[in-house]
Amino acid sequence: MTNPLDIEFLNMNGEATTLRHLGDDTTSSWVVVNVASACGFTRQYAGLQTLSTQDGVTVVGFPCNQYGAQEPGTHEEICSFTESKFNVNFPLMAKIDVKGDEAAPLFQTLSTSSDASGYTGDVRWNFAKFVIDAAGNVARFTSRDEPEDLV
Asked: Which of 52, 57, 65, 132 is in the most buried spot, having the most CB atoms within 10 Å?
């Protein structure tokens, strides 16, 4: 299996990057989250921002409009909202699909991991979280799992 840290996706400027590239020499855990600005879980941005300030943790958000059309904005609108409401300064990537035939390759790979209940498959809702270590091992968390409980 390909290490999820090395799967390419587009950043907000349409340039290819990887999770490994977004981390630094001190990163030991990457937290990948499909985010939305108009969801009941949007409040989790605050916890994700706090998590992103911990040593060794890189949080990366992937806006997705597949669940209830809860992320309709442009990248600029999303960034403005998250900065003004939650002081978010962790990277938000280009808007993507996280499930279905058009799912981004990163999320196709992450969806093969199981959560604590044993569920494996498509991301079920906004704010699903995946914690990846440097070896590429994936721990999967649901939308209901709080960012503070991840690492």
From this structure: 132
| Domain of 91, in residue numbers | 4-149
Active site residue 79: no
The 3-state DSSP class for residue 52 equals helix
Q: What is the CATH number of the domain that holds 8?
A: 3.40.30.10
The torsion angles phi and psi of 44, rounded to 5 degrees, stand at: -65, -15
Q: For 32-41, what is each residue's pLDDT tens digit? A: 999 999 999 9
From the list 10, 38, 39, 139, the catalytic residue is 39
Q: How many CA atoms lie within 13 A of 91 on its CB side?
A: 20
Report which of 2, 3, 44, 19 is spatially closest to residue 150, judged by C-alpha positions. 44
What's the structural domain count of the chain? 1
Taking 3-state DSSP, the helix, strand and coil percentages for the chain, each rounded to the nearest 5, stand at 25, 20, 55
